[in-house]
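Practice problem: predict the structure.
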Amino acid sequence: MTQEISSLEEMLDRIDGSADDEGQVSLGKIVESVGNRSFGPLLLMVGVIMTSPLSGMPGMPTIMGVLTLLIAGQLLFQRDHFWLPRWMLRRSVGHEKVRKAVKWLRPAARFIDRWLRPRLPVFVRGASIYLISAVCVVIAVVMPMMELVPFSVHAAGLAVTAFGLALISRDGLLALIAFIATAVIFTILFLQWG
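Answer:
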């Protein structure tokens, strides 16, 4: 059984260490390395990918949107473990690209990890978990359209990352900040689209 992830840097270590013998990193190996029973680390994983240079690859925001929808939807319906279709689990990218993305994210991960701690539990328990998953579902549904607005995928990735980190670290303050940031992001997007 995979030990629960407790920090962003630990998540990056697991993603970096999930390459196969041919130098490819599949989504299935990443999910296996972070654990398929923990929705917080899975949301964090998607958020990290969305904020990394990997999100610039054509189609990656849409794939991450589908993945976010699957994770958040299963969290919303209280599944006890995570499921993905096999075709999605087989999707892979070269380990060198993953390693560069992890290296790029590591300084920010160290900085963020120093600030996380359990606080304001009302925002990471009970009904708040449903609200987190519902907000992530909305982000996922809008994500394919975000490919058209520069840097909006990164902003959405930051929100999903914050929600994942909040669930992992039981940091309600971070969840509250993520709710506010998501509201601001959507307001800006709707003003641009309107």
